[in-house]
């Protein structure tokens, strides 16, 4: 088992602490949170060992799970890496692309592994559908959330949209060519609603919408590719695939058949991939343990996290 410590005991940090304590791949050593009152409350309520400083925690573990506010990610990661610790770091990887690149460089220099917490990669609906996503040419995502003061210290792009940016970059095997975006601040000092159009060199276009002041929650992604349409509901954990194939010689009388202006006929097939329930946060933490133990590449690398942040910054700069 890998000795792990958690930096940050806020809402998400407490979830990580609970799951790491349950995990059979980690030994939870303890945590540190700079908010003394909160830290003491968490330690008393759940019995986790509270360390007096970041350095004390890092010295006691092999893996550091960084679940602090984004502004402190770089300093926390730097301290951990220089002590030879592997790092799991929540998204976004850092405040700036420069900080993200510095984290990558340090990890390489000190021969430690890092994974970024883009948890939607482990969403069971995406896992069920991703094997069917093949060279999509148009992608549309909607990520809408009810207002929550937590996270409003950063634009909605870094808070919410970056999840979809990472998913899109994982399935589109091409470089970003252009980004056009708009953002509006309604309640916060930073944009609460954003829309972005990302154009890739291979011709793929992705249209992303994110809002943190909606009346209802929604997390849907749609992928359009040659002869197929794939819908992924990340919130409801559902996936649907609609395929178009040449009409067989003797189609079923109930078959859904379309004919275009040139007379070409296509039959529509519907498929609902089986979605297996999982705990996405536990899975992302445990696959990182596997990568360390087996010396393999993490599912979401530091490069992946940096690329997602770079594109997110391009969206923000386009406002």
Report on the architecture of this protein:
By secondary structure, this protein is an alpha/beta fold. It folds into two domains: 2-112, Rossmann fold, CATH 3.40.50; 121-277 and 312-318, Dihydrodipicolinate Reductase, domain 2. Helices cover 34% and strands 29% of the residues. It has helices spanning 11-22, 36-46, 54-59, 73-82, 97-109, 124-130, 156-171, 280-294, 302-318; strands at 2-7, 26-32, 63-66, 86-90, 114-117, 138-144, 176-184, 193-200, 205-211, 218-225, 228-233, 238-246, 256-259, 265-271. Strands 7-8-9-6-10-11-12-14-13 form a nine-stranded mixed β-sheet. It has a five-stranded parallel β-sheet with strand order 2-1-3-4-5, sandwiched between helices. The relative contact order is 0.16.
Whole-number average pLDDT? 95
Q: Main β-sheet, in a few words?
A: 9 strands, mixed
**Number of structural units classed as domains:** 2
Structural class: alpha/beta
In CATH terms, the superfamily of the largest domain is Dihydrodipicolinate Reductase, domain 2
Outline the low-pLDDT stretches. Answer: none
The name CATH uses for the topology of the largest domain is Dihydrodipicolinate Reductase, domain 2
CATH architecture type of the largest domain: 2-Layer Sandwich
Q: How many individual helices? A: 9
Strand order of the largest sheet: 7-8-9-6-10-11-12-14-13
| Estimated helix fraction | 25-40%
**Beta-strand percentage?**
25-35%
CATH class of the largest domain: Alpha Beta
Number of strands: 14
As a whole number of angstroms, the C-alpha radius of gyration is: 22 Å
């Amino acid at each position: 088992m890998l000795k792990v410590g958690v930096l940050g005991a806020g809402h998400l940090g407490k979830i990580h602490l609970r799951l790491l304590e349950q995990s059979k791949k980690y030994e939870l050593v303890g945590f540190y949170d700079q908010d003394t009152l909160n830290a003491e409350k968490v330690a008393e309520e759940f019995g986790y060992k509270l360390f007096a400083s970041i350095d004390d925690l890092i010295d006691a573990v092999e893996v550091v799970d960084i679940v602090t506010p984004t502004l402190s990610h770089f300093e926390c990661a730097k301290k951990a890496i220089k002590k030879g610790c592997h790092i799991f770091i929540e998204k976004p990887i850092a405040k700036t692309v420069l900080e993200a690149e510095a984290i990558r460089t340090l990890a390489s220099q000190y021969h430690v592994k890092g994974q970024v917490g883009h948890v939607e990669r482990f969403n069971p609906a995406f896992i069920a559908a991703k094997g069917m996503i093949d060279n999509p040419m148009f992608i549309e995502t909607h990520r809408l959330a009810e207002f929550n003061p937590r996270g409003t210290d950063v634009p909605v792009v870094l808070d919410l949209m970056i999840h979809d940016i990472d998913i899109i970059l994982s399935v589109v095997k091409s470089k970003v060519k252009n980004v056009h975006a708009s953002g509006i601040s309604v309640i916060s000092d930073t944009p609460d609603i954003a829309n972005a159009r990302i154009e890739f060199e291979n011709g793929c276009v992705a249209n992303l919408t994110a809002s943190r002041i909606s009346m209802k929650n929604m997390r849907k992604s749609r992928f359009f590719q040659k002869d197929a349409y794939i819908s992924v509901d990340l919130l409801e954990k559902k996936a649907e695939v609609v395929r178009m194939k040449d009409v067989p010689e003797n189609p079923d009388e109930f078959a859904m058949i379309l004919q275009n202006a040139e007379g070409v006929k296509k039959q529509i097939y519907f498929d609902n991939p089986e979605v297996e329930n999982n705990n996405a946060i536990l899975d992302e933490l445990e696959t990182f343990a596997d990568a360390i133990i087996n010396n393999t590449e993490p599912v979401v690398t530091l490069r992946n996290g940096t690329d997602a942040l770079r594109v997110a910054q391009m969206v923000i700069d386009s406002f």
